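Try this one yourself first.
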C-alpha cells in the first residue's frame, strides 16, 4: 500500500511506529509546494490496511537547495526493533546477486537475531517484481508476531513511501 506519493523527500528515510491504541503511524519528510521540507505522517487505525493523511506535523520551514543525503553509494541504512520475546529484528536495504554476476535492484531484507545472538539468514521482504528500488527500510513490531516495514521507492516520476505488514513465525 502506498502511504504517500509525489512530494516525498527521496533522501530522508521514513519511520514507522505503533500508537497506544495499535495505530500504525508512518512519518516522513515531505517537500511542500512552498519548498519547505517538513515532517508529515499518515495514520492507519485498521492494522495497516488503509491510511489517513498525510498530515503536516510541524511547520519548521526547513529549506535546502539540494539533497541532504550523504551520497554514500549502496549504503545499507539498517533499522531495528525488539520483539516482545526479546528477539531483534533488523531490516536493511541490499542488492541480491544477479544471474549475470552483477547486482540486482535495491530491496528491503530482514534478519532476526535470537536471544543467544544467532542471526537468521537474510530474507528478502516481498516486493512486486515491477516495483522500483526499495530504499531506507524501517521496521516496527506489533503483537502476536506482527511486524510492519516501510520504505521509500524512487521513480522518474517522483518518490513514494510504501508500507507492508507481515506475521513472523513463532520462535
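Now uncover the answer:
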Amino acid at each position: 500500500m502506498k502511504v504517500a506519493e509525489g512530494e516525498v523527500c527521496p533522501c530522508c528515510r521514513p519511520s514507522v511506529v505503533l500508537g497506544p491504541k495499535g495505530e500504525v503511524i508512518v512519518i516522513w519528510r515531505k517537500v511542500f509546494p512552498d519548498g519547505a521540507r517538513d515532517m508529515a505522517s499518515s495514520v492507519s487505525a485498521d492494522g495497516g490496511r488503509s491510511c489517513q493523511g498525510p498530515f503536516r506535523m510541524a511547520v519548521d520551514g526547513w529549506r535546502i537547495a539540494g539533497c541532504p543525503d550523504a551520497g554514500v553509494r549502496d549504503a545499507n541504512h539498517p533499522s531495528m526493533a525488539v520483539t516482545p520475546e526479546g528477539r531483534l529484528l533488523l531490516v536493511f536495504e541490499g542488492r541480491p546477486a544477479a544471474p549475470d554476476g552483477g547486482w540486482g535492484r535495491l530491496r528491503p531484507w530482514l534478519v532476526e537475531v535470537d536471544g543467544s545472538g544467532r542471526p537468521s539468514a537474510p530474507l528478502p521482504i516481498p516486493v512486486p517484481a515491477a516495483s522500483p528500488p526499495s530504499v531506507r527500510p524501517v521496521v516496527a513490531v506489533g503483537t502476536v508476531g506482527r511486524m510492519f516495514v516501510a520504505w521509500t521507492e524512487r521513480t522518474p516520476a517522483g518518490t513514494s513511501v510504501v508500507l507492508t505488514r507481515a506475521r513472523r513465525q513463532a520462535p
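Discussion: The radius of gyration is 16 Å. The chain has a mean pLDDT of 82.
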